[in-house]
Amino acid sequence: MLMATQWIVLGAGSVVAVLIGIHRHRPARKAPWLLLAGAIAALAAGDVFYGLRRMDLADACYLLMFGLVALSLLQFTRGGALLVDRARLIDLLAFACSTLLVVWVFVIGSGGQFGAVNAADVIGSLLLIAVASRLVAADRRNISAILLLTGAVGLLVGDIAYPLAPSRLTESAYVVLYLAWGLSALHPSMVRLTEPRAPEPTPWRFRWSVLLAASAATPPLVLLIEALSGTIRDGVVIAVTTAVTLLLTITRLADSIHQHSQALTREYGLRTANTALVAAADPPAVDAAVRAAVNRLLPPNTVRRVVLATDDGQLAREHLPPAPAGSESRSWWAPADEADERMLICPLRLEPLAVARPSGGALILTGRLDALIAGRDALEVLAGEAALALDRITLVEAMGRRDSDIYLRTVIPNTAESMAVIDSDQRIRYASPALRRLLGGGELPPLIALDDLVHPDDRDRVRRALSAEGDGSMFCALRRLDHTQVLVEMTYRDLRADRLVQGLVVTMSDITDRHDPSERRPFREDDSGQPAQINRRSAQHKFRY
Asked: Taking residues 339-367, what's their average pLDDT?
């Protein structure tokens, strides 16, 4: 038989391997691996006490080991980890635990013993195998999950074979347990066991609730039957099974309460955000409402940076990767500076139309991966509501500008002032009748730019002046429809920041009559080839005003 020092070496080596794996691979959650290390240490202590014939201390350590490894596996199966939904697993584990208790007490043996095999150890090992098998089923290529299952199988074999036939061969099953659980933490796939994933809410089913209730009621019923029969022979097994079933039931209820609480929080946050976005009158108000909603939807201090890019131009300045090819998801991930952080990109899509905004844009959040995954659905909905608010504001402003243009056309049809409203791209949005008469009459072509009206020799100067910020005035020549020229004094006001105008208001005064007849056509179209004529034209252009 293995000596106490050998069990100490095996246990210490396995615990050190788990700690090295945690330090090297840095999983998203360290708690389940630390609990597993504690379970290995408790098992090693139990084996040492067993080798020293201190059975009372050995049983206490074994019981502690089962408790720690059960908590560890529950952490592995926590919502948002490898198993996105563990409700059905918990229900089945509770039912299996109660069923094994009934089979052991009423079918297999008396007093919870089959020869020297302990019923509580076998039931606990079977439950560990069930959870580890579920982990393997969720990720069949995960070596760490396979090693955890191998260690659980080794524990079951040792709990059955060693009491029936003590030998080095049957004792080696426990050695397999130590080696497998230690190696499971050293393999890089251990990170995937706690990697955050999007939870999937489980719909309520009455039959599952009945199954869980029956599982929780079975151990007290078995105890009642033995008490009525006159002798309680399986008190320890019943107590352990009751504790495990109660732990599973409480875990199941806690998960349900947590999911319900998260749903209420998301509902309240989105409802409040929707109210604020409906009341928002400009993009800064939309940005403030989105930031407030993010703070309500996600836990505090989990999001480091929030950017609401209202168009594709601002999105390009963020240097973000494009959406994955062929992906129909309403959001995608990008790497962040910190190892435990990610960047979530939610394009501004018009819900419920599920189409992108004409100007594009996205909601960009940088923060902890687990928090962003948990709130991803709510953040996608928030981005859709922000898109609707931004487009509503754009449409309201466009309607305001249209009404303003209609008002101008109605109020000043006979004014002698030549006036135009120029967009930021220098296209003419509105031209007064006086300006049209100045240019020779007739309607201006749609989407015509001011550059098309200014003489080519003056275009660069006019373009630079109107592209700069602020008000000003200048002199230039306009080309009429009959190819004649008219000299004007152009005065412009920069109202691009005004919510109702969003452009430049340009007024033009005809100053052609103030010049000599020879100066009323400053640019000659037929003398462009001779150097002397070019110099004379340049001097006339310089001093004509």
From this structure: 79
Burial class (CB in 10 A: 0-12, 13-18, 19+), 240: buried
Q: Would the CA dihedral through 20, 23, 26, 31 be positive or negative?
A: positive
Query: Strand order of the sheet with strand 503-510?
Result: 428-431, 418-422, 503-510, 485-495, 472-479
- DSSP letter at 444 equals P
Measured distance CA(340)–CA(26) in Å, rounded: 9
Q: What phi-psi label fits residue 105: left (phi over 0), alpha (psi between -120 and 50 degrees) or beta? A: alpha
Note the pLDDT tens digit of each residue in 411-433.
555 555 788 888 888 888 888 88
Q: Output DSSP code: residue 450.
A: G
What size, in residues, is the chain? 545
The candidate with the shortest Cα–Cα distance to 389, out of 500, 274, 295, is: 274
Listed range (59-63, 275-279, 481-485) with the worst mean pLDDT: 481-485
Pairing state of beta strands 362-368 and 428-431? unpaired
Classify residue 326 as left (phi > 0), alpha (psi -120 to 50) or beta.
left
Contact 238, 101 (CB under 8 A): yes
Q: How far is residue 73's CA from residue 151's CA, in Å, rounded to a whole number?
A: 13
Three-state secondary structure readout of 160-213: HHHHHCCCHHHHHHHHHHHHHHHHHHHCHHHHHHCCCCCCCCCCCCHHHHHHHH
